Amino acid sequence: METAQIAVAGLGTMGLGIAQVFAAAGFPVAATDAHAPARDSAPARMAAALDARVAAGKLSPEARDATLARLRIVAVPEDLAGSTLAIEAIVEDMAAKRALFARIEPGLAADAVLATNTSSLPLAGVAEGLARPGRLIALHFFNPAPAMKLVELAGHAGSDPSALALGRALAEAAGKTVIACPDRPGFIVNRCARPFYGEALALLEEGRTAAAVDAAMVAAGYRLGPFSLIDLVGADVNLAATEGLSAAMGGHPRYHVFAALRAQVASGALGRKAGRGFVFPAAPGPAPEDAPGDAPGDAAAIVRRIEAALINEAGWLLAEGGVTAEGIDTAMRLGLNFPHGPFEALARHGAPAIRSTLAELEARAPAHLAGRYRPAPVLARD
Ligand SMILES: NC(=O)c1ccc[n+]([C@@H]2O[C@H](COP(=O)([O-])OP(=O)(O)OC[C@H]3O[C@@H](n4cnc5c(N)ncnc54)[C@H](O)[C@@H]3O)[C@@H](O)[C@H]2O)c1
């Protein structure tokens, strides 16, 4: 398998990282981009990323040179011929992805795999027009691809099991932890993370401070609170992801786009990149029960509410099939650096406590959130 050539189309943030992942693991990589500057600068950009690892003592200069020597930049998608796995990480546009695969597919063997790194497009649509649609799968990497262990693997209804197996085997051979999931909007992580932000925004709208919410979550073991995470990624990026998922899920109240998030984007306080955000540049303060004026137990109530909503979303995804509870837990730990997955949290709290938290929230939910906290089937069990 180590001699299998991996093709990468698109040499932006994700494509360059994905090319590095496979080259570092010993695979010959052929890569291209529609824009000449992106092609021309790719080896130097990868060298810079690898040099940082050499400087940090995490990579030998020999390993860096060997990795770079495995990268071959080609001019056009047709030059990716002969690859065993062709991964696209180009612009998030259905027509562009279809047109790209139409140029790559004729040069590949019948048992090769086409993989999309799409975050939001339905796979059946991407596969449309292919001579062998069954060979198309999703391999969804996380940013930065070389550092993030997780890859979400999905197929559409017509994907060949052998294409999924080969995509998994190659990603695992490159050192990734591959979690299978259904072809549903947001796959696992981008969907199951929504309540982390959503409940935090609801708490903000109800009068809590962003610093208090973050402090409560950090005290509970989360590396970053929800608002600091939004500050890191950008409120505009978070809003776009939330709006995309809300639309894809038919506007269900579990994916409600909170006014506080829209207001934040409108204010320009987008987070680190703007110099100020919900919390940034301040560090999160003390956990709320330690802050003057807060009632004892406030931090625990914040954590229980956010975790109840995280558990419930994971429960609804589980009910849709094609994924396991262990898979969701692993994906949330690896994809978001959460200290524990939602089903591990469920085991800690117990289903009766989560049911009662959700019932309480549903009972006082405003009209536009009615149904948001309806418990998933898995919560019916004790
Ligand atoms: N950035 C992330 O955090 C992230 C995470 C997971 C998945 N994704 C997905 O990965 C894909 C790429 O995202 P990105 O952040 O790397 O984007 P990017 O803008 O950094 O890079 C895209 C690259 O594709 C090139 N390109 C555009 N159209 C092309 C075409 N028709 N043929 C060949 N090359 C083309 C561009 O020149 C650019 O270099 C998208 O589908 C995105 O949804 C992104």
Quick synopsis:
Keywords: Oxidoreductase. With 382 residues, this protein is of the alpha/beta class.
Please give a structural write-up.
The protein folds into 2 domains: 6-180, Rossmann fold (3-Layer(aba) Sandwich); 190-380, Orthogonal Bundle (N-(1-d-carboxylethyl)-l-norvaline Dehydrogenase, domain 2). The protein is globular and about 65 Å long. By secondary structure, it is α/β, with parallel strands linked by helices. Helix 8 crosses helix 13 (298-319), helix 9 (210-219) crosses helix 13 (298-319) and helix 13 (298-319) crosses helix 15 (342-349). Helix content is 48%, strand content 9%. The protein has an 8-stranded mixed beta sheet, sandwiched between helices. Strand 1, helix 1 (13-24) and strand 2 (29-32) form a beta-alpha-beta unit. The model has no long low-confidence stretch (mean pLDDT 95). The chain has 16 helices and 8 strands. It binds nicotinamide-adenine-dinucleotide (NAD). Residues 9-15, 33-35, 38, 89-92, 96, 100, 117-119, 141, 143 line the site of nicotinamide-adenine-dinucleotide. This is 3-hydroxyacyl-CoA dehydrogenase NAD-binding domain-containing protein. Residues 186-279, 302-379 form the 3-hydroxyacyl-CoA dehydrogenase C-terminal domain. Residues 5-183 form the 3-hydroxyacyl-CoA dehydrogenase NAD binding domain. Keywords: Oxidoreductase.
